[in-house]
Amino acid sequence: MSVNPYMMILHADPARYIQKPAPTVLALAKSVEGTCAVLGLLKIGGFLLDSLGSLSTVQILNISLTGLALKAALSLHEAFGALFPVFALGVLVALVCTVAEAAGLWALRVALAGSALLKYTRKVLLFDTVFLLLTTVAGIGMRMYHYTLHELSADPSLLKLRTILLTGAGCVLFLVVRLLYHRDVFTVFSAIEYEIRMEYKETVVDAPRLAAFAFLFATLSTAGAVLTARSIGYTSLPFLLLTAMAVKYFAVLGSWDGFQHCHR
């Protein structure tokens, strides 16, 4: 029986780009990130269950965070004011998705399974990032309104105002980039899920910014790891997490290159 050559061209072989070194490194790095996310969830969850009734948000931050993470969190709390707990809820959702993706990537790498989990987890991250972005904009607006009414006269140097604006603008820019990155990763995971389920190639995969943003995050993570190592040491958890993130994003570049090679 003859085989239509067009069907042979369109036949998908996901193992060609999944069961390779770069996706293996990606799964390993994501495992470290997922482990850190589990530790963070356990720690934050424990403090919330035990102390939410008696401690303020700032006190909980002081207990559960240290060093640069504490300074960053307190800066965000100062900028967002009353909406900071809502912002923190979005961060918790992202941590849960990180744990789920770590499991999904290993299932995909080892058994070509878990693609649906990765697709829908990334979709949750996409909407969660929109939620965080809207919360950030609303929080900055509310904080600016409160500052104008109650604090402007006592802050002639406008130092607090600059802190609010710079922190907020940095968060907005970061979240917009993350939103575009999540959109491209969701597109790729959707294509992989389709190919595994249907056994046909996804001929159009529109992820134009994936490589650029992955390289950007790899560079930022590497710089963060170097700065963290100099300030608190090479054995600290933040250094290990930032190193794993840098490796992860470089592995994303390699995995994306392999994916594209199989779809030319």
How would you describe what is shown here?
- By secondary structure, the protein is an all-alpha fold.
- 81% of the residues lie in helices and 0% in strands.
- The protein has helices at 5-10, 15-18, 21-51, 57-64, 67-80, 84-111, 115-150, 159-198, 210-232, 237-261.
- α4 packs antiparallel against α5 and α7 (115-150) runs antiparallel to α8 (159-198).
- It is elongated and about 70 Å long.
- The two termini are 28 Å apart.
- Mean pLDDT is 83; it is low at 1-8.
Summarize the structure.
The chain is mainly alpha-helical. The chain has helices spanning 5-10, 15-18, 21-51, 57-64, 67-80, 84-111, 115-150, 159-198, 210-232, 237-261.
Q: Tell me how many strands there are.
A: 0
Tell me the β content.
under 5%
Our Rg estimate from Cα atoms comes to 21 Å
The profile of the biggest β sheet is: none
Descriptive labels:
264 residues; disordered N terminus
Write the layout of secondary structure elements.
Layout: H1 5-10, H2 15-18, H3 21-51, H4 57-64, H5 67-80, H6 84-111, H7 115-150, H8 159-198, H9 210-232, H10 237-261
